[in-house]
Amino acid sequence: MQKPRLLDQVREVCRVRHYSPRTEKAYIHWIKRYIFYHNKRHPRDMGANEINAFLSWLATSRNVAAATQNQALN
After folding, report:
1. Which of 14, 33, 36, 46 has the fewest CB within 10 Å, making it most exposed?
2. pTM for this one?
């Protein structure tokens, strides 16, 4: 049996923990943006340096507020 894909795993965890649909949608959104920023690399193959690069990009290139950066980090 094939292991569920990352986003399906995230959805399942959100539902098991009874997160709101909006929270689930936000988590999926930020995970997708992170993956696409890093040219579709899987998050398991990345670490703190890639997270910092993504957050720096959000702050400098996308001019997002600190609260948005915190949401992306969560």
Report:
1. 36
2. 0.85
**% of the chain with per-residue pLDDT over 70:** 100
Domain membership of residue 21 as a residue range: 6-73
Which CATH number fits the domain that encloses residue 60?
Answer: 1.10.150.130
Q: Taking a C-beta distance cutoff of 8 angstroms, is the pair 38, 54 a contact?
A: yes
Angstrom distance (rounded) from CA 55 to CA 11: 23
C-beta of residue 22 within 8 angstroms of C-beta of residue 2: no
Q: Is residue 22 part of a domain?
A: yes
24: its two tokens: 């689930």
Calculate mean pLDDT across residues 10-38: 97
